[in-house]
Amino acid sequence: MQPNYPTNRFPAKLLFISAMVLVIALIGFTVYQSRVFHIIKTDPSLSSFPATYPYLKVYFNDELSKDNLRVAIPSGLVRDYSADGKVLTFTLQSNLPLGTPYVITLKHIENTKGKTIQNRQLTFTTKDIPYDQLSKPQKDALVANQDKPKYSVYSIQFVNFQQLLDKGLSQTQQLIVENAIFTTSQIVKQQFNTVTLQPNSVIATPFDPNSDNPAYSVTFDFTANNKTYHTTVSSTNISDAQAVIKDSSGVVVYDSTTAVNT
Question: Confidence class of residue 167 from pLDDT cuts 50, 70 and 90?
Answer without folding.
Answer: confident
